[in-house]
Amino acid sequence: MPSPLWGEGAGERHDGCLYMPWIQNRYFRYILSRFLQAIPLIFVILVINFFLIHASPGDPVDILVGLTDADPKVLQELRREFGLDQSLLVQLGIYMKKLIQFDLGYSMRYRQAVFDLILSRLPATLLLMGVALALASFLGIFLGVLAAQRPYGWIDNTSTFMALAGYSMPLFWLGQILLLIFALKLDLLPAQGMVSLRAPSEGWGRVFDIMKHLILPAVTYSSYFLALVFRMTRVKMQEVLAQDFILTAHAKGVSGRQVVYKHALRNAMIPIVTIIGYNFGFMIAGSVLTETVFAWPGLGRLMFDAIMARDYPVLLGIFFIISIIVILVNAMTDIVYVIIDPRVVYD
Amino acid sequence: MLKKLLGNLGILILVGLMGFDTSTLQGANPQSGGTLIIGLEGEPATATAHLATDTAALMVASNLFNGLIGCDMNFNPTSDLAESWSISSDGLTYTFNMVKNAKWHDGKPVTAEDAEYSFNEIIAKVHPRGDTWWPTVESAKAVDKYTFVIKLKSPYSPLLTILSNILVSGSLVMPKHVYQGTDPRTNPANLSPIGSGPFKFKQWAKGSHIELIRNENYFKKGLPYLDRVIFQVTPDAAGRLMAFEKGELDFLHWYIVPHEQVARLRKDPRFKIVEKGGESSATNELLLFNHRSPYLKDQRVRQAIAYALDRNDIQNKCLFAEGKVAKSHINSGVSGFYTDKFDYKRDIKKANQLLDAAGYPMGPDGKRFVLRDFWSTGRPYESRASEIIRDQLKAVGIEVKIESFDRLTFVDRVFKKWDFDMAHQLFTTGPDPMISVTPRYHTNQIKKVAFTNGMGYSNPEVDRLFDTEYKVTDMEKRRQMWIKIQEILMRDLPALPLFEIPIVNAVSAKFNDVITRPYGYIQSREEAYLVK
Fold it and tell me: Rounded to whole angstroms, how far apart are CA atoms A178 and A219?
């Protein structure tokens, strides 16, 4: 019986081999090959990070006992428990051995499996990032296209000013200003967290509640990237709109809207997609600030707390997951190139 | 003499009140219901108290578990799981009679065996600060189902104070049936605890909040009043304050209320600034002096710095006039022991004379030498203090170079590597100075452990006093010994007390009795109620 998970036609063939048509898919094979190529890179990232975070001063067991003048015997016992009494190379060896078995280790601070910890925080960050990225991309492209059509018109001037502001304002400062205006003064939106704790809701009520909590962090988070996407779209669209084939399209009687969105935008999209894909990694870094200001329970804050507590396994686990996500996003960006521009071919 | 005093002590048999202390509820008519939402500055590592001593973890744990005893605002012991207690005439045997109606959240009875297990297997072996007082204990045993006896090796007068304060002792009673035969550090119950306290654990949404619900079978009749207590993790100080003002949070404890906002909050009828609940910690901000520094090893240089600084100006600017100058190594809130007799008044002339006498004449450029001043991020008043100190010490020719670090790097530089000249650090000084002052300045505390004697201060005279005072059961005699200790410490200046951290808790006016104890910021909220 075909498995819905693997798609139409999947299942066991008459010769007993597992038939998985998605393996034949060229996009999938491309992502897989990129991923396999990236394994040595992930290894290098982890080794460098391992030594970097261990080189930073500070003893994680001090945090484990709550920053107190703890009994040295207790501290020694904790070091032994978490293998911190071993040499760095031995610790690295143990970590890598576990990693090969897909075991990300055990958080010293939370005394929980790192994978479970990351998994519990990842959805909140993905939701925030997804919404912010969508907002930045769609609004940035839309405003960029509008601005490029009438350079130095009021839409262009206003958007350019806003983009400049969004680009230059520190995220935490913008977040606090938005909180002050929309949460405190106007009392329109909640200030902290992802859900209302005083009056918890269920079902659709909960969805709306999360959406309400999401607005300010998402707007803050997207501001920098919206500015980037807007600037890039505006410049590229101006370039493309000045080219001969656009004139030809107009001469052929193609409507203005079609010329802009079908002919010009498609040609301007490659660098825009590059900017969006390239900045994905930076977005994860930005999540630390946004999640802190809005008490959003995501991965960025887990990372920040892990840095402050020198929770090495959690930090390495997050670096590992982020590396994989960034590599996947870059591979997907390459595939989007092909979809946008059929002239792009990968060997 | 000591024998006579011990004999007098034998007559003094302390009997706790049945039930709980109702004095705080006089004139009020509390009713059940309501949700109290408490803002936390960081996510607790655990919801139990035997693994960590951070404020966030203790704030949660105190609602889930009970100690043997607590104490009232005057530091008199009050009943908790022990309904009464007595001390033998020789001051060596403490007998606790436990309540018979207390139950764990899973329905099993709380007995003296749980106390025996908690003290011997958890506090003695796992708790980070167990070594501060446990070595004085000879044995801790359940003599029958509801009688628990602690025998001491020698008289130890702060014992009841220590037991009543979970921050210093961690003496919460844990369920033996849940922990026995397991490693108490990794037991899954640490993340979804089973306690005996007024609230039961409901959920821990990682990174977001911890929710506790009312324990309907709590052994203290009529308590608790609240339906739910929620601890929300709010790491950003500005966001946290806005959530409080907006009514999303109901309580911010004294360590996280921004001092510059207190005057404004005080005027707002929606809020109350509760100026109690930190007395048992009695926290002072100090400027630590590294006695290994070629300059600071000279007592005259340390005294010159004390004379050169206008600490009133420092506290005014750092705490926005909410605090006061710390005039001794004990906080003025520790009333039984404190004296301000040995304080320094600003005297630039004297400071210059001392520095000249120490052999550091003023150079033609107006400078004598350079000192580094360290502070760690997260406490804005320390940043301000270091800048003011830099300006004020210029007047006596000391150039100050300020460096700031994250907390763990700071601990590493100051307490582990001893690589600093001056450093800003909070030290608690209560509820009994033996617990909090002695571990900072005793010679045997010069060890590479956080918050010990990183200054490298050593004075055999003060060590002798530290080693004997806690065995003295005559309070007046003990007080005199502590006055002598303060005299020596203020003369030697292992550190200069800068200011006392003001106890300013911010509470929503919708709630009463959120704070009723001298350890109010980490106390159980069993007495708190919603004003209807």
Answer: 9
- In this structure, how many other beta carbons lie within 10 angstroms of the beta carbon of residue A166? 23
Residues of chain B with pLDDT under 70: 1-28
Coil, strand or helix: which one is B494? coil
Q: What integer pLDDT is reported at residue A106 of this predicted model?
A: 87
* Distance to chain A for B244, nearest Cα, Å: 9
Tokens of A37: 């190529």
Q: How far is CA A298 from the centre of its chain?
A: 11
CA atoms within 13 A on the CB side of A275: 22
User: pLDDT value at position A269?
Assistant: 86
CA distance A237 to A242: 8
CATH topology of domain A115-340: MetI-like fold (1.10.3720)
At A215, the amino acid letter reads: I
> Where along chain A do its domains lie?
24-100, 115-340
Report d(CA B286, CA B299) in Å as an integer: 17
Whether B407 and A308 lie within 8 Å, measured CB to CB: yes
pLDDT value of position A21: 63
**0.90 cut: is pTM over it?**
no
Q: What's at B368, amino acid-wise?
A: R
> Whole-angstrom Cα distance, residue A166 to residue A180?
17
Across the interface, whether the CB atoms of A68 and B53 are under 8 A apart is answered yes
Radius of gyration of chain B (CA): 24
CA distance B305 to B347: 10
- Tell me the C-alpha to C-alpha distance, in Å, between residue B247 and each of A215, A247, A287, B8, B70: 19, 60, 26, 53, 31
Residue B93 CA, distance from chain mean position: 26
Provide the 3-class DSSP secondary structure of residue B325. strand
Per-residue pLDDT tens digits for B369-418 = 999 999 998 899 999 999 999 999 999 999 999 999 998 899 999 999 99
Rounded to the nearest integer, the mean pLDDT of chain B is 91
User: Whole-angstrom Cα distance, residue B380 to residue A274?
Assistant: 41
Distance of CA B305 to the CA centre of its chain: 28
Binary contact (A65, B52; C-beta < 8 A): yes
**Minimal CA separation from B84 to chain A, in Å:** 31
Burial environment of residue A150 by CB neighbours within 10 A (0 to 12, 13 to 18, 19 or more): exposed
Burial degree of A252 (CB within 10 A; 0-12, 13-18, 19+): exposed
CB A307 within 8 A of CB A100: no
Over the Cα atoms of chain A, what is R_g?
25
Q: Are B52 and A66 in contact (CB under 8 A)?
A: yes
Are A111 and B186 an interchain contact pair (Cβ–Cβ within 8 Å)?
yes
Length of chain B: 532
Tell which of B51, B268, B449 to mutate to test the A interface (max A CBs under 10 Å). Answer: B449
Helices then strands (H, E): number in chain B? 17, 21
Q: From residue B481, give the alpha-carbon distance in Å to each of B51, B92, B486.
A: 34, 22, 9
Contact A79, A312 (CB under 8 A): no
H or E element, residue B144: strand B137-144
Per-residue DSSP letter, B118: I
pLDDT tens track for A86-106: 898 999 998 888 888 888 888
Contacts of A80 in chain B (CB under 8 A): none
